[in-house]
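Memo to structure team: turn this sequence into structure tokens by end of day. - J.P.
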Amino acid sequence: QQEFQRQVLPCLIQSSKLNAFINPPYTVLIYAPFAQLSSYIASYAMWAAAGVLLFLLSLALINREWLGAHCWKLSKLLLYSLSFFPVMLWFVFGQATGILLLGLSLSLILLRRENEFSAGFVLGFLAFKPQIALCLALPLIIKFRWRSLIGGALSVSICLATGYDMFPVQMKEY
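Reply from structure team:
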């Protein structure tokens, strides 16, 4: 990975020490299946396709849960979503936005249905991007939604335990 980063961004990388773990090491479990493909281009294409599918699934869930009563069409919601600049950046930079959007959507739907523990459990798996997970976790803390917080603590613990079990050195370095 370091060699690839040096090839792509030689002018931006001044030192020989790169941050190999922008995400926690356990997130390699998300990316590894895509890395097994024959080329970087194929891996990126499959990653992007998976992200688009998760994005569409998220929109369908949001549409059904909140907007269905207003007779919105999924195509209209998709068009509005694609006109939002950060969504376009996600496609260009290959971020994990599809995973994040699905997790946030499911958490909000579960909270709306008063399934607190499950909502927190789903939200906790988004801890690989804490700045995103905290957007929903902070109000849960302020509102003392303990069942949600316990669910989140359990899934975060599962992620950390998996990371320390599979990648102990890397987790300590992270």
